[in-house]
Each structure stands twice: as C-alpha cells, then as structure tokens.
C-alpha cells in the first residue's frame, strides 16, 4: 500500500508492505527532508500518542530518483516490540495486524529520539488500510495450501536456530557484493510441517541488487523449527516468514 504526500512542492511517499500474514509489516519512507536523518544513529519511530519507540533492527537507506532519500524499516509493530516473558509457554496470537492497535495509530514520525525535530507524516488513521491488508494476506494462506480456520488463534512456529542461520547466511557474503558496496534485505517464507521440518522456501521480496543472491536451499538445509500449534495445543501445518538484512561486514 502506498500514499503520496507533498510539502512546498516536494514529493514524499509512504509504503506499507506485508509478504505474509502477521503482526509486523515493512515500512518505507521517502522524501527529500529525510536526508538530514541519513547519518543519524539511534532512530526512533512514532506511530501514536505512545511516543517514539527505538528502532532495534538495522535500517537501510538509499536514494530514489523520484523522492530522494528513502529509509526501509522491516518488522515494524504498531505497539512496539513485545515484552519478553521469562520461562513462559508460547502464547496464542492472531494472524494479522491487531485492529485495536491500528485504531490508535494516527501518524508516522521518524526521529533520532533525542528531542530533535523529526520527519512527520500526517497519515490519519490507518485502520481501513490495515483491514484491507489483513484480508489480502489471509487469502495467501489458501494459496499456500494452509488451513485459514486454524490460524485466527494459534502459536506460530519457532525457529530454534535463527541466530545460527543468519550468521551462516551473512558469513557467505558474496565477494563482488562487498567490492561494489552492495547491501540489501531479503524476505523469505517457509512452510513448516507438523513435525517441524521445512517443506518449501520462497524469496518473497528483495532489494534490487546485482551480486547479492541469497539461496533458499541454505534455509531448507539449516533451519530447525518447533512446529506451530492450534488453539488446543496440537501441532499444525503453518508458515514462518522473516527478513534478513545484508550489511557489508
């Protein structure tokens, strides 16, 4: 989903994207005023009157021909990252963007989180947009051969060796990509069977680059999962989707 803005004759763009059903989404902000934040560390994102939430993951930045500076932020949550609960069982959760949280959002502000002026997008309520996005991503479950009736309340699969997988993928950073200064992100989605094995892997989205070429075969070979569970606690066939940022080591 995209929405354009204009200020003083200059164009800005907000893009919200999901490659799979879930509570997180990708956010791309583009426009000339973002240039002053390009060298700032410790960026924060404000989506409601809760105030700024620090961005924990890496943020990719670059230039676009039509809008100037752009920032790509993956795995955004409307209510911020979940608070970890020590020694607890995995919790049931819904499949899409929470409409209660979506109703609270009314802006997108990117700032350094230190009181300095940020870049403010007056979006208004995104509730209708997120409702449409939930409908679109729900349809993907059927296309992937999964049962939508099991997913409104379920425990998602858990990758046991996510850090190891990321480390091995980044360790094999292509030499030519390093030479040409290429960075990028790659979103992949796997189907996790009831025994935790991975039956398929697909690259859902990727930065347009020449030499970075992540391979799903590596994910299929390395990934190790605890299977998803339905509301009764029974193992179920489901999916796992994530994004890996490739940054030059």
Overview of the structural elements:
The chain has 249 residues and is of the alpha+beta class. It folds into two domains: 2-143; 148-246, TonB (TolA/TonB C-terminal domain). 18% of the residues lie in helices and 33% in strands. It has helices spanning 99-104, 127-143, 162-171, 175-179, 216-222; strands at 2-7, 10-17, 25-30, 44-46, 53-54, 60-64, 68-76, 108-111, 119-121, 158-159, 184-192, 198-206, 225-226, 228-229, 235-236, 238-246. Strands 1-2-3-7-6 form a five-stranded antiparallel sheet, with no helix packed on it. A four-stranded antiparallel sheet has the order 5-4-8-9, with no helix packed on it. The chain has a three-stranded antiparallel sheet with strand order 12-11-16, covered by helices on one side. Strand 2 (10-17) and strand 3 (25-30) form a beta hairpin. The longest helix has 17 residues, at 127-143. The chain is globular, with a radius of gyration of 19 Å.
């Amino acid at each position: 989903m995209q929405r354009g803005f204009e200020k003083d004759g200059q164009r800005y763009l907000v893009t919200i994207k999901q490659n799979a059903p879930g509570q997180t989404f990708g956010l791309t902000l583009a426009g000339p005023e973002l240039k002053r934040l390009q060298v700032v560390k410790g960026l924060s994102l404000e989506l409601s009157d809760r105030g700024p939430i620090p961005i924990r993951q890496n943020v990719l930045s670059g230039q676009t021909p039509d809008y100037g500076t752009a920032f790509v932020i993956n795995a955004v949550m409307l209510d911020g990252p979940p608070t970890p609960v020590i020694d607890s069982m995995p919790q049931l959760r819904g499949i899409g963007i929470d409409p209660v949280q979506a109703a609270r959002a009314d802006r997108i502000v990117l700032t350094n989180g230190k009181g300095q002026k940020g870049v403010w997008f007056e979006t208004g309520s995104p509730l209708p947009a997120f409702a449409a996005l939930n409908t679109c991503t729900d349809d993907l479950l059927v296309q992937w051969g999964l049962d939508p009736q099991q997913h409104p309340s379920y425990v998602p699969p858990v990758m046991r060796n996510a850090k190891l997988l990321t480390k091995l993928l980044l360790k094999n950073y292509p030499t030519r990509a390093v030479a040409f200064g290429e960075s990028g992100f790659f979103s992949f989605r796997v189907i996790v069977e009831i025994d935790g094995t991975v039956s398929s892997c697909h690259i859902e989205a990727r930065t347009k680059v020449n030499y970075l070429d992540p391979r799903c075969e590596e994910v299929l070979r390395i990934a190790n999962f605890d299977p998803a569970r339905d509301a009764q606690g029974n193992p179920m066939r489901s999916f796992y989707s994530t994004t890996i940022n490739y940054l030059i080591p």
